[in-house]
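Quick one: structure tokens for this chain, please?
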Amino acid sequence: MFSSKVYLNRREKLRQIMKDGIVIILGNNESSMNYPDNTYKYRQDSNFLYFFGLDHPGYAGVLDIDANEDIIFWR
């Protein structure tokens, strides 16, 4: 992946476009093929990867534009 500054800059550009509010970007979870223990090869959501650069299942990101905060949730 790129340096963290690249992802910070991308989120900052999104903030400038949106101007206010909250943006939620969901990452992917592992998906089962036939039954829960038989999973497909994992692939992160492209939007989440573009803005956060994290390639792990179960993540979600929130950009609070008004508070100028980025929050990452994981389950």
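Residues 26 and 60 are 4 Å apart (CA to CA).
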